[in-house]
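Consortium newsletter contribution from the modelling node. Members have asked for a concrete example of what our holo predictions look like. Here is one, prepared for the 5'-deoxyadenosine complex that several groups have been discussing at recent meetings.
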Amino acid sequence: MKKLEEIFDDKLLPMDEAKRQYYFIDAAKDIVAEKEAELGRKLTFCVNTFGCQMNARDSEKLVGILEQIGYVEGKDEDSDFVIYNTCTVRENANNKVYGRLGYLHNKKKKNPHMMIGLCGCMMQEEHVVETIRKKYSFVDLVFGTHNIYKFAELLVRALLSDSMIVDIWKDTDQIVEDLPVERKYSFKSGVNIMFGCNNFCSYCIVPYVRGRERSRNPRDIVREIEHLVEDGVVEVMLLGQNVNSYGKNLDEPITFAQLLEQIEQIEGLERIRFMTSHPKDLSDELIETLAKSKKICKHFHLPLQSGSTRILEKMNRRYTKEDYLLLVDKIRSKVPDMAITTDIIVGFPGETEEDFLETMDVVEKVQFDSAFTFIYSKRTGTPAASMEEQISPEVVKDRFDRLLAKVQEISQKKSGALTGQVADVLVEEINGQDASLVTGRLSNNAVVHFPGDAGLIGKIIQVRLNECKGFYYIGEQV
Ligand code: 5AD
Ligand code: SF4
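And here is the predicted structure:
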């Protein structure tokens, strides 16, 4: 087996970052092949993803690299290389990871070849890495969100070292294109259009763990989507923490609406989704583009967070209750059948019953198709964490239950709106409970089950929506 110094020989290392990573993929391939020969079997991996779509896309990049190296997907945590791609947006996500690590330690005692890797947002927090060093010293590799493109290089180090490899960067302005990626679905894909966030909502840890906002070059985005379409993809989800501010920091600035118009031109691409929009940057130009487009899906996710202008100000959201309501009216007046969904936080420091009722009022007025409701979680290092008047758990729980009941009542009422109509469904999979059915999604993201077989997966099919059962439709092909 080659030694670390031989692989990290300056004379051999390519200067270009993508080429450099392909060099390490080749080096890792040799190491893994030797291990496999020794063991007489393939080495397996399992990538376990927590959190948002951004993390899901990052995990596809990890899997792409692992498969190039020669690892094969294994059975859950019994695999030889287990990676947790972590989330830290709320405290309970962190606790879950610590809980799982104890369980992994037992697995590792039984499999001496097992390696454990941790990455993602939680690793960008200093106190987390300290805890891992102290209490979970059996972990092999720890890296963060900014250097994920160096995964192959870090893996080579970890494979050839007996001690924990930790590499965390505070920030980066690098965007490395053209590394391998393995999609979870053949027919749809996430596409990063920007990284990081500059908004600093006062409760949110994302700007600290994902760094400053950086947009990808539109040419790279379009090229990536063209390749995906050649490869069978019909639906893309454009990903960014605040897609409405896309392009502002590029050398040749461009708006999100202009990017969408370029993507719309890609032949063979059928559906465009995006997430997440920030109300403060939602332009009239974008709403016009939505109205004109034939490919942008009829689903807009527009996080509200709170309906109280007073709390929105403390959250540093930079819009008022009235601004939000006006935006929804504008969207609906141009695109009447647009489903609107949202995120709401309950129990932000200082939230009074009156503030909470303002949130309930917006929920009532907007009639969201669905809403993700969260209990405020104190994140160390954010401005809200040191605000006085943290709300007692009992009060928060009571408000949360009332909000959830209202949100559910409204979504149930709205969910059958298309019953009787014929609509396009992108078929995603065989139904988990009844193999004679397939499951897909409407443009507005609603779920539809109808009789069909695996041959329909990845196709857009016209379906009559016969019946709505709670949160999904039962239909038939027309
Ligand atoms: N506590 C609770 N929810 C939060 N979110 C972000 N930070 C926090 C926090 N500290 C929610 C917001 C955001 C979603 C992704 O997570 O509603 O839109
Ligand atoms: Fe967090 Fe606000 Fe940025 Fe969203 S926009 S990631 S809530 S800071």
